[in-house]
Amino acid sequence: VAKATELFQECLSVRENSLPAAHPHVIAVLWALAGIAYDQAKYYESLQMYRRLHDSLTRTSQTEDLATVCYNMGMCYVELSNFDASEEAFTQCLRIRTALYPQGDARIARTQHKLHEVWQLKFGH
Fold this sequence. Notes:
Layout: H1 2-18, H2 24-39, H3 43-60, H4 64-79, H5 83-100, H6 106-123
């Protein structure tokens, strides 16, 4: 896993120097690195990658990808015990998903559940 992460980092460096931040290849490498870091319990590193993804995707459109990034950022913030930032990330995710799926969706329910969990952690209920 360490070698794969190193190769992805190297790939990201090359891609970022030659491609715009919102290019699909850069996005794909950032997704992979963020997921690997999260799986290795490197939540701060994962969060940094998700923030970069967030910045890139925000420039393009409000899509399910952006909602997923917000959700994953919220998960990182929970692991880092930053409940205010987690609440903000899950709320942004919920806002995007509600706009995308006005009839409701399992992803909306999952996001609402996570937001409720954050409130319980934040307010101790």
